[in-house]
Amino acid sequence: MDTKQFECFFEIVKHGSFTAAATHLYTNQSTVSRKISELESELGMPLFKRNSRILELTQAGEIFYEEGQEILRRINALHSKIENISIGKAGKLIIGMPFNILGLHERRMIRTLRTEYPSLQLSFISLQPEEVNTAVENGDIDAAITLDHLTKTIPEEIVKKPFFKDKVAFIVHDEDELCGKAHVVIEDLYSKPLVLWKSSKLAQPEFIARLLVQIGQKKMTEPIFCNNYESMVMEVSLENGIGILPRLLVERNPSDNIKSIEVEGIDDAMNYVILYNKKNVKPGMESFISKCIELANS
Description:
Elements: H1 3-15, H2 18-24, H3 29-43, H4 59-86, E1 90-98, H5 104-116, E2 119-127, H6 129-138, E3 143-147, E4 158-173, E5 194-197, H7 206-217, E6 224-226, H8 229-237, E7 242-246, H9 247-252, E8 258-261, E9 269-277, H10 285-296
Parallel strand pairs: 1-2, 1-3, 5-6, 5-7
Antiparallel strand pairs: 3-9, 4-7, 4-8, 4-9
Keywords: DNA-binding, Transcription, Transcription regulation
Protein name: LysR family transcriptional regulator
Pfam families: HTH_1 (PF00126), LysR_substrate (PF03466)
């Protein structure tokens, strides 16, 4: 039993003849007759009264007409769902990211995606920076949004695509003397330790690496490495150092006594990327990721 048989049956009932049904189905009468014969053979009962001058349904035909419409509707709905999965418009995607990095712009992007992909279940989970690459590699998540400098050692099966660029935020206590300066320069950063993510010991943006070299050459205090964003904010709140973070993360997680300052001579960007494992690509995921990149940069 297939949907073509259902369609032929309902078109015959709707238009009153095999010939009219064939016309509306853009086929010939013999094809329609064959489909109905196959259907009746499978059911073991005739659906139409063959000895009547007027096309009439048998009792079995009436039951098939009543019940078959819902069956055909559900079959068509099932086909639609499967097709949506094949093109990435249905199913489930789990996207990981370090901490809560999604800001207002990205939340608007997600709302747009959920409008365009209403049947797609999007789940976002927060991971430690050093966990993101492994989660993508192992297939624990379908994709990840992370910082480029945290992806220097990813295996070759991991695909990395540029997502968007974010500005750098230097955060200090709101009563720090740097808040009152009209112009903050790199040398002003030498007065206190830098507060960095612990994972940054292994991989930092190039400008942070340069700062660490300069600080080391001048024999200033060692950086403070923290396990998470909350610890970084606490260190800055206690006036123990100057934090360096993506501006998006700072804006997304404001703190009462923390202020972001501009530093002259540093216009470097924090580059975000999207990762996925080419060995674990779900149907339509690549086109979905392309749509994400398009929205993030629009």
